[in-house]
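Slide 14.
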Amino acid sequence: MNKYYDLLGVKPGATQEEIKKAWKKQALEWHPDRNKSEEAGRKIQEINEAYEILSGKKQAPQQQSQGNPFRNPFNQSHFRMKARPLNLIVDLSVEEVYNGVKKKIVFNVDRICGTCHGAGGETNTCPTCKGQGVFVAFNPRIGAQTITMCNTCGGNGQVRVKSCNTCGGRGVTNTVESIDMNFPKGTLSGVKFIVTNAGNDVAGANRGDVFFTVNVLPHPIYELDGLNINKKEEVPFIDMVLGKDVEIESLGGKYKITIPPNCESNKVFRMKGLGLTDEETKINGDLYIKLVPKIPKEVNQEEKEILEKLRNSINFS
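Slide 15: predicted structure.
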């Protein structure tokens, strides 16, 4: 446990306030948008894991106990594995990532059969191993006992004599459940959220976890680059030549930018702090506006005559 305190740079027994303050400091220092070193990605994961464990949001990995070296490792009465995690994709829009959102996630999950209670049907004691699930024998070559799993019952000590009509012998039935999930501002594609003990049931094992992986959907106007937002803005050609104050629509509202005279095509304006906000670290991205000249689809006779005159002028020829 001490290694998690070391990662955040606090002493064992630190208060929750001290832990949170230290985590924010470390997160700012190692955030990939600020720290471009190769180890930044790994380091920020370790820092976040340490904070989740020390703040009680996540349990620390448990070390396996040595226990009795001759106990039955297959028998469910002695050892229960955890079911494999359920991996789900959650689609978020760019607007939801910008503002943060609370969503009800509906998904299919296996639950212990209410008829057979996970047994898969009627069972009897295994006649081969007499319910032990294993065979223990002394091996004179190595001078120690060896444990071999019973092939008849697969180590359970029980054999099925009749399958359950409800679950078809699986021991579980599939059902639909939902979880209310909170996705804070700045949640990007690839970010995982773990909900412990909400995943699949497996007979003879502890309930699994659910891993929700965020997928940010493409947007017709805005493109995300980390916490930064890119946007192409069409501006009338004449405004790029003569210059003008124009109003730009963004996810956070409307803002004015000043286009200088003789502005070149594809010029990029940086609007600091108007990108995404990471709700945990309070880091703000920027909004980048690329100006693209807007060419009229058609011109009338008067406009055509003016453009013909410009074509022959010194600055337009």
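Speaker note: The chain has six helices and 15 strands.
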